[in-house]
Structure formats: structure tokens, C-alpha cells
Amino acid sequence: MPEPTPRRMPAITVYGGRAVTALQQVTSFLDSAGVGPEETQELLALIQAGAVEGAQGDVLELAERPPRDATAQAAQGWVAAVEAAAAELAHIADRTMTLAQPAARPAAPAAPPAPSLPTSIDEAPQEQVEQVLATAERLFTELTGRTDYSRDASLETLAVVLTAVAAEDQAGYVAQLEAFAARNRDRLTELYRKYGPGGELARLERSGLVEQPESIVIAERLDAAPMWLQGVWDGEIEELTLERFAQLWKFGCDAPRGARPSRAR
Fold it and tell me: How far apart are alpha carbons 97 and 42 in whole angstroms?
């Protein structure tokens, strides 16, 4: 008898967008107050790790409340599951702090060179928008076989999205986009198959971006710089459009994301 397919558990998506906005605001306030990026990152990580630890305490209390009428064996399994969940939360809190810690400094008195911060741009050159769109169109057609999209809408959206790419990365962005599409080909294919026009789960009010080639660029920015993308999107394009697409890209596909190459900056 074949093993039953594990049921996909729903993710909580109530506070994600608001949390991104709150993080941007707090980061901006701390930057205005002269707090350095590393210290800001550590402070935010402390808040996040503390919240996870608080959640762990709530989870541990569940061990004392097994399901009513549970057998002794079921109650024992309940306690084991609670302990496993609580242990994982503890690991998440630890990892949150570890990732926020700056790399260990060498014992030598010479200070390492300061890392360069990405340079923002106010407007993407039209030539860059056209070049990125041409690449996105080619990739989109290869993945979907479709050419019935609005090119004018693509140009308008990409003019905004490409301002979430650092100035120093603009020249190499086409190659970066192609590499992203290659790494995530299975996931992109599933996204369009499920939610694109005629897809089994397509719904116009939530899937509009899936019909457009710039969706590949938006997916790449959601993986690489989600807070930056959210910041440039707000006030320029209808906010729920990005939220709905982000939910499909993050939680609507079973195919794994392709691992991003490490970058030393």
C-alpha cells in the first residue's frame, strides 16, 4: 500500500507584509539616529530571537495539555511532538542571533576595510528596462509558451522594480536574472502551470502578475532583496498585487528554490 502523501500545512500570512514595513521603519529610525548597520542588525535579531523564545514557552505549556481522552501512548507521543517543536524553536532563536553576529575580527590591530553598501538609484535607465524586459520575455516564453501579455504594463512595472537593484549591480543584472531562472526553473514552471491563465489554481484577482514576463524579475527580487522591493513598490504600484504574488511564490509551489550563490560584498 503506498504511503499517504503528507498534507501541506498552511503557513501564517497575516503579519508578514506589515512586519516588513515595520522593519524598514525601525531600520530607518536607527539609521537616522546614527546607529551602524551591524548594531541595527543585532538589535533587530535580538527582538526576533526573543519573540521566538517567547513562542517556545507557549509551546512547552502544550505538553501539559494533551488531547482530551488521549490514550497513554497518544499522550506520550503528544509530549514528544511538543518537545521536538520547542527544541526547533530554540534552534531558530540561536540561528537568528548567530546570523546577525558580525564575522569575528582578527586579533591583529589593523581594522578590516569597511564593507561597501549597495548604492540605490532613483530611476532605472530606459535602455536597462528594455534590456531586462527582453530577457524576461524570452525566459517567460520558454517556460510558458505564451506571448499574449501586456508589454506596456511590463515596462511600467519594471521601471519601478529595477530601482530595487543596486547601481553597481545594474550592468550585470541580466546575467544575474538568467542564472536565477536557471536555478529556479522547476519552481517557475510550477508557478505558471498552477496559477497562470488556464492553470488549475488560477484566479485573476490574485494571480495577475503570473501572466506577465516581469514576474520572473519580481520573483528574483523577492528572493534577493524583499524589503528593498517592498520599499520601492509601495506608493508606486497597487500594494496587494505584490502581496498576492509573493504568497504564491513563497508558499504556493512545492518545487524547492535554487540555492543562491554566495557573494562577498
Answer: 7
Closest CA to 199 of 157, 146, 139: 146
Whether pTM > 0.85 for this model: the answer is: no
Instruction: Give dist(CA 242, CA 229) in Å, integer.
Output: 9
CA distances for 223 relative to 4, 74, 136, angstroms: 32, 40, 16
Tell me which amino acid residue 183 is.
Answer: R
Contact 129, 158 (CB under 8 A): yes
DSSP 11: P
Quote the CA–CA distance of 70 and 67 in Å, as a whole number. 6
Q: For residue 247, what is its C-alpha cell? A: 504568497
Query: What DSSP assignment string belongs to 63-93?
Result: GG-PPTT--HHHHHHHHHHHHHHHHHHHHHH
- Give Cα separations from 253 to 144, 187, 235, 257 (angstroms): 16, 6, 28, 9
Give the model confidence (pLDDT) of 161-198 as tens digits.
999 999 999 999 999 999 999 999 999 999 999 988 87
Question: What residues contact 180, with CB distance under 8 A and at least 6 apart?
Answer: 216, 219, 220, 223, 224, 258
